Each structure stands twice: as C-alpha cells, then as structure tokens.
C-alpha cells in the first residue's frame, strides 16, 4: 500500500505521466499530443491537440453499450412528476434540442444562456450545447432581472433557453417576466429565446423572437446530430460567480481537461460505478450542478437524479425515500440542507431502507461538527466534507477513499481533508508571501501553477482580469489565490477559516457584498451602504446591510422592507439582506476606505481589532449601540 502523501506527490512531480494515465478514462477522437502546455503562465492548456466531446462522453458512449440503462432520473415534488430517461432516450432528446439550436444558427463557439428551473430540458440544453460546441452559460433561476441582465451582457448569447416558471414549495415562480425585463435592461439582445412551456404561468410571447420548444421538438424529433469534435482547450461553458467587484466573473472551462478531471474524481473521490445512481441536491445554476448533477455522474455512466423541490416537502424524509427508491449509492449535498433536516424528527431517516448509500458528500460552506456528527450518526455512512470553488470545478481538499493501492486518509471533523491529487496547494503568509512551515498557522490557501485539469482556463473575455484577480494577490509570487484563509494541523489536515475578500456564503451560495451594495445604493432613499456577512446558525452566514439615508427621517421598518424588496427584484431573493440597519455614518479609514471587516466583527460581537486607521470612532460606536453589543 502506498501512502496518500506519496500518491499526491507523484501527481505533482510526475504530473504529465499522472494525467496522461487519467486521460484514458474518456474517449478521444484524436489523442492529445501534449499533456500540459505551461509555456504561458499562469495559463495552462491541458491535453493539447486532443479532440473530444463532453456530450459524447456523458451520453453517446453509454447509449452505445447500455442504451436502456437509466441516465437521467427527474423527480419533481413541486409538480408531482417522476420521469426516468434511459441513455438512449437522453441521447434522442439531446439530439433533438441540438437540431433545434442548429436550425437557429447556433454553432461552435456561440453562447447559449440557460435560465431554467430544475427540469430535464435544462439538462438536455446543457448537453445539446456541449454536443455542437456551443458555450453554455447557466444562470441560477433564483437570480432576478438585474443579475441576469449583467450576465446577458457579458456572455452576449445568440440564444437564451428558458421556461415559463419554476415552483418552490408549491408556489409558482414565473421566470419569463424576469427574463423579458433582463433583456430590456441588457445592451446585448439575443436573437432568439427558446421557451419551455410547463403550463405553470401564462406569459407574453415576443413575436419573431420567442420560440416554442414543444412545437420545435415535434418538428425535429428523431434528428441525428453528430457530435462536434472539439480540441481539448476549446470552451465548454462559462459560469458566473461573485468576486470583490460588483461585476460577476465568467469562470471559463475547457472540454478535455474538465472531462478527465471529472472522470477521475468520480472514481477516486466519489467511488461511483456505472449503473449506479448518484444524487446531488444542488441546482444546475451552481458549479456542483454542472460537475455533479450533469457531467460527472453521466461521464461515469451513472444515472443522475435531478430533483425539483424542497428537502422538507411533502416531508423531511423525501430525499431518503428517493435514496431507497432509486438505490442511490453516492449522495452530494450542503451543510445548510442538513441543518434544515436536523430540525425535523430523526425517525424520518429511519423510515427508509438506506442500505444502498455508501457515502454523503457535503460542500459549499464549512461543515460544523454538530451537523457533521448528527448526520453521520443518523445515516451510518461516511460523511465526506469537500472544499472547492466554482473556479476549480472539482474538489480541492477532501479525502479520497477509492484510489486503488493507496491508503485511505481518515476523515477529521472540522477539516475537509488534504489536498487532492493534481493540486499543488500552499499556505502562504499574507504579508510576505512565504510558505508557512509550522503547523497551525493561518495563511492564504493558494495553488501553484499549473492548475490541474478541470479548473478555470481564464475569466471569460478578460484574460487580464484572470491574471490580476487570481494570480497577483500574494506578494512576490505568481500563485492562484482561493481567497480563503486556511490552517494546516500537524497531521496535514487543512481547515478553512473564511474568506480573505468581501465574498460571503449564505446557505452555501456565494454572494459578493459589492453586488448587494450596488443594488441597495440604487434605491433612491439610500445615500451609502455597507454589506457584511454575519454568522448565522442555519445559513452559515447572512448578509446584513448598514445604510446611510439621504433623509434620516425616513428610517423605519417600512423602508427596510422596501429596500429588501428592491434587492429581491434586482438580484433575487438569494441576495436579500436579512436586515437593513439605518445609521448616520459608516466606519471608514481616513482615506475613505470602508472598514467592512471591523463592521462585521462588531456585528458578530467580536473585537474589531486594529482601528488606528478608523476616521471617526463614533461610526462603530453607533453600530454597537444599535445591535446592543
Ligand atoms: P462556490 O464558488 O460558490 O462554490 O464557493 C466557493 C467558496 O465556498 C470557497 O471559496 C469557500 O469559501 C466556501 N467553501 C466551499 N466548500 C467549502 C467547505 N467544504 N468548507 C469550507 N468552505 C467551503
């Protein structure tokens, strides 16, 4: 047995041999000529010269050998439907949608924006784009018109695929009015909008622009659309994520590197096998949805369970009933969801036969020990915390239990684990940029060049931003910053201690405080605002706003509600602050920089630390008084 440390070391020191071996997991039309081109750091190009296709690897190759096996299982407790698509059926649906896209002039390199609820057509749409080399950009359905408009402008899609509505807790959530408003707001106008009409909400059809999916599906049924073989470094998709500026970044991914990285992770990390069922409770609007609802499980030849609904409806046993019914072997969720379930009767977990389940993976936010222990005891299977980001596309820190001939690293509560193969992780001193050599020192979690396959290639349309944002923040070193604080204990386990930037994490959703600030500032009553993330028992963090009014006499509950509604309308309810406090002054440095960190510390009842640069101490005193600290 080799140690995991040795295995990891080999993935770094013998990088090309390691990944050349992994590349055999997928089908290539033409084999790569070079494993990794590092000639233009910090960029990296994986499997140069190889041609492949994500849809072929996710669908066609399984449809060829196991056409009748389940591929996509769709369960909606919102509309009371369950549909199982075999690989052959999935292939047919994807080809039909690919034909629809091609008939609208969508081809290789064109962007297709997908703004959809958790319905099978969303999966068909992503795979159809991948099939014909179009670049998909999925926007989370919970985002509203202003968020959507900024993404439309950045991605400049030729076509948008959407639906009349989603449903949440039995309540219809119309999508089309938000989309129409976003298109009005955006400078870029898509040529066409393909509408899936679920019959949930009537909508206005814009003639000449809006297309009806059902009619076109009938017209193109049975279409044969060959996959377009793409050089490994062509773009598969972009996915927007929040950063420190108000403008979201389009995380851009390749084709071949992503396919190989996912295939390897499905085996080594998740231990998923063809013919089994994988259940991720995420949403296709997030990176977990891309990697582990759609591409990862399908590439591995598993059936993927796509769920539309709440974890507690019709009752808190719904997920476990699905595990039993579809014999789920691997499940992926987020700590927040577990904290929600924890409030319900634990007997609900025992009601179902969960013997198929081998492990539950949790990611997206820190897994607190009580939550981890509760679910571990309730399920009786390993709970695997895993840490990663939209940018990395697959886990960076976790424990991989399925590497043949390699010793298993035991899990440790509070830590997601150790660096995964391929990631040359370093903890660096924030001030000096030097590696931290002693255990238990807090530093910035960074990755040395090159990032392994599957990680972002660049920021869509902005190489300069990619370099400036991710590779230039540590003094004297060109390393990738995760913008997370980390600490390594004496046994090599890494602990995540929060973000180094102004990004917050609400119920596993990553939000930029600047985006929320920009939205609140656009309300006519607001002169200035600061938004910080404050610790919350259920959601991990919530956004709290401190706003200065143009007319202080307007302060009150009514205005607070109005500001929240304003954010709902612009960004979506996910970004709504939990409270909006009205203050007369915000804490700033003498040079006018907002001291968000001090504000956050005070809001959490902590010591705000060094305040020598604070211009007017009364700003913090006011917040303390307001919150009764
Ligand atoms: P996202 O890009 O939305 O996936 O958010 C990524 C961020 O979520 C990371 O940079 C971390 O701050 C946080 N995060 C994700 N997974 C974990 C985890 N297992 N433990 C602690 N923080 C996590």
Automatic annotation (TrEMBL):
Coiled coil: none
Residue intervals of the AMP-binding enzyme C-terminal domain: 515-593
Superkingdom of this protein's organism: Bacteria
Gene3D superfamilies assigned: 3.30.300.30, N-terminal domain of ligase-like (3.40.50.12780)
Alphabetical UniProt keywords: ATP-binding, Ligase, Nucleotide-binding
Residue ranges constituting the Acetyl-coenzyme A synthetase N-terminal domain according to the UniProt record: 4-58
Any GO molecular function: propionate-CoA ligase activity
GO terms under biological process: propionate catabolic process, 2-methylcitrate cycle
Ranges where the AMP-dependent synthetase/ligase domain occurs: 60-450
PANTHER family to which the protein is assigned, alphabetical: ACYL-COA SYNTHETASE, ACYL-COA SYNTHETASE SHORT-CHAIN FAMILY MEMBER 3, MITOCHONDRIAL
Entry similarity comment: Belongs to the ATP-dependent AMP-binding enzyme family.
Protein's recorded name: Propionate--CoA ligase
Lineage: Bacteria, Pseudomonadati, Pseudomonadota, Betaproteobacteria, Burkholderiales
């Amino acid at each position: 047995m080799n140690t995991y440390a040795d295995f990891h070391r080999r993935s770094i020191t013998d990088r090309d041999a390691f990944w050349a071996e992994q590349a055999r997991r997928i089908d290539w039309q033409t084999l790569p000529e070079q494993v990794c081109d590092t000639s233009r750091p910090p960029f990296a190009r994986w499997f140069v010269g190889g041609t492949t296709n994500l849809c072929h690897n996710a669908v066609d190759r399984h449809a060829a050998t196991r056409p009748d096996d389940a591929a996509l299982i769709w369960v909606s407790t919102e509309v009371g439907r369950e549909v199982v698509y075999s690989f052959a059926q999935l292939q047919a649906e994807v080809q039909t949608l690919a034909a629809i896209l091609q008939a609208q002039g969508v081809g290789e390199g064109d962007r297709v924006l997908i703004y959809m609820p958790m319905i099978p057509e969303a999966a068909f749409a992503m795979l159809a784009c991948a099939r014909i080399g179009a670049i998909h950009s999925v926007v989370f359905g919970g985002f509203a018109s202003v968020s959507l408009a900024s993404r439309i402008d950045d991605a400049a899609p030729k076509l948008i695929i959407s639906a009349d509505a989603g449903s949440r807790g039995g309540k219809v959530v119309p999508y089309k009015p938000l989309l129409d408003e976003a298109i009005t707001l955006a400078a870029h106008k898509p040529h066409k909008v393909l509408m899936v009409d679920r019959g949930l909400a009537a909508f206005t059809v814009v003639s000449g622009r809006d297309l009806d999916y059902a009619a076109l599906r009938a017209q193109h049924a049975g279409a044969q659309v060959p996959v377009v073989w793409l050089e490994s470094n062509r773009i598969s998709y972009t996915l927007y994520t929040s950063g420190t500026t108000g403008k979201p970044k389009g995380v851009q991914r390749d084709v071949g590197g992503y396919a190989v990285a996912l295939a390897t992770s499905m085996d080594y990390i998740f231990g998923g096998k063809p013919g089994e069922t994988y259940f991720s409770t995420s949403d296709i609007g997030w990176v977990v949805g891309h990697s582990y609802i759609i591409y990862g499980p399908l590439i591995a030849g598993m059936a993927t369970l796509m769920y539309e609904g709440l974890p507690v409806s019709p009752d808190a046993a719904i997920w476990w009933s699905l595990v039993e019914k579809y014999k789920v072997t691997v499940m992926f969720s987020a700590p927040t969801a577990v904290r929600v379930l924890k409030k319900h009767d634990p007997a609900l977990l025992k009601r179902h036969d969960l013997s198929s389940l081998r492990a539950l993976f949790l990611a997206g936010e820190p897994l607190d020990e009580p939550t981890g222990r509760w679910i571990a005891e309730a399920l009786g299977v390993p709970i695997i915390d895993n840490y990663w980001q939209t940018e990395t596309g697959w886990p960076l820190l976790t424990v991989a239990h399925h590497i043949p001939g390699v010793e298993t690293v035991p899990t440790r509560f509070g830590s997601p684990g150790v660096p995964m193969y391929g990631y040359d992780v370093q903890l660096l001193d924030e001030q000096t940029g030097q590696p931290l050599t002693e255990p238990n020192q807090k530093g910035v979690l960074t990755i040395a060049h090159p990032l392994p396959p599957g990680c972002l290639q660049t920021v869509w349309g902005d190489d300069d931003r990619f370099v400036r944002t991710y590779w230039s923040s540590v003094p004297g070193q060109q390393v990738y910053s995760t913008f997370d604080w980390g600490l390594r204990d004496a046994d090599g386990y890494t602990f995540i201690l929060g973000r180094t930037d102004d990004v917050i994490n609400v119920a596993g959703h990553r939000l930029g405080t600047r985006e929320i600030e920009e939205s609140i500032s656009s309300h006519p009553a607001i002169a200035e605002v600061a938004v910080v993330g404050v610790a919350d028992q259920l959601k991990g963090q919530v956004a709290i706003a401190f706003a200065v009014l143009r007319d202080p006499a307007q302060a009150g509950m009514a205005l607070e509600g109005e500001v929240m509604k304003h954010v709902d309308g612009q960004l979506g309810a996910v970004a709504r602050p939990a409270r909006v406090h009205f203050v007369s002054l915000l804490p700033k440095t003498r040079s006018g920089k907002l001291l968000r960190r001090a504000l956050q510390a005070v809001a959490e009842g902590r010591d705000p630390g060094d305040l020598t640069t604070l211009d007017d101490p009364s700003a913090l005193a006011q917040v303390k008084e307001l919150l009764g600290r």
